[in-house]
Amino acid sequence: MKIFDFIVHGSIYLAFGGSCLVYASCLLFGVEPKLELMVIMFLTIYTIYNLSRITDKAEDEINVPERFSMFTRYEKYLTPSIPIAYLGALFLAYYTGGIKMVGAVLLYLILFLLYGVKWIPASISKYRRLKEIMGVKNIMIALAWALMATFLPLVYFHLDITITTLAIFVFIFIRWIINPVFFDFKDIKGDKIMGVITLPVFFGVRRTLILLAILNTLLGIFTLISTLKGWLPPLAHLVNLSTIYCYCYLYSYNKMEIKFLSNVIVDGEFIVIGFLALLGTLLF
């Protein structure tokens, strides 16, 4: 159980999901997935999300005491691993794709610093971090994931920006709008205390669930149309089954323990997407 908790709360599980997302992105582009791209994504996600364990300690102590406890217990090991992992991601990015790919890895860090760190002077705004502004955190997280997962294959394989690129970007972006908003359900108490106005805090749980279901439906329709139009390859029909997966975890709210639902089921969504993409290559 301690190993499982470390894998989940130490961002290893989520980072693996990021690798699976890049794997799926490569297949959607019609190119062979490369291990080095998956490793770059893994190291970047590991870095950024463990950095957030440091910047969000106060919230985690209230919302996710087990994650706070785990990070505190292993802090002397996890803290030095953060710069090591990030430097590894930068080195591998430069070695495989040059300065453009390094830019994608740096962009994720820049976006994180903009929304997660208190850099806005108290004298000019009541908001100290962009994440305290409703919706900004979710948009910036989704933007970072979508840019990374589309940009890495684009640069590595010297692909042109086409309608396929846009379709893949939109798919990942909307998926990552839904995903972290669902995570905000378990953080309502701490977010209220810390003054972070998330969608569940502002609209309430029921209305937010309805909004996420609508977004999920629209994304499913968009992905279906994109596949029928030829903007995405036929294997995208299998990837689009993630729409059903999303309906299942939205429906499971209040029917399953929220922390397990969020940390395992929801965070595992991109592992499922990677598997569906692989299955699609076998069927189409």
Beta-strand percent range: under 5%
Q: Give the structural class.
A: mainly alpha
Rg over CA atoms, rounded to whole Å, is 18 Å
The residue fraction in helices comes out at over 70%
Which series of helices and strands comes N to C?
HHHHHHHHHHHHHHH
The total tally of domains equals 1
Mean pLDDT: 88
Q: What is the number of strand segments?
A: 0
Low-confidence stretches: none
The number of helices is: 15
Major sheet details: none
Cα(first) to Cα(last) distance is 39 Å
Q: Label the overall shape.
A: globular
Which terms would index this structure?
0% strand, 284 residues, globular, 78% helix, mainly alpha
Textual characterization of the structure:
This protein has one domain (2-283). It has 15 helices and no strands. The protein has helices at 2-9, 12-29, 35-55, 57-63, 65-73, 75-116, 136-156, 163-183, 188-194, 199-203, 205-228, 236-239, 242-251, 258-266, 269-283. The longest helix has 42 residues, at 75-116. The radius of gyration is 18 Å and the shape is globular. The relative contact order is 0.13. The model has no long low-confidence stretch (mean pLDDT 88).
Q: How would you concisely characterize the structure shown here?
A:
The protein is mainly alpha-helical and 284 residues long. It is built from 15 helices and no strands. The protein has one domain (2-283).
Strand and helix map with partners:
Elements: H1 2-9, H2 12-29, H3 35-55, H4 57-63, H5 65-73, H6 75-116, H7 136-156, H8 163-183, H9 188-194, H10 199-203, H11 205-228, H12 236-239, H13 242-251, H14 258-266, H15 269-283
Helix pairs in contact: 2-3, 2-7, 2-15, 3-6, 4-5, 4-9, 6-7, 7-8, 8-11, 11-13
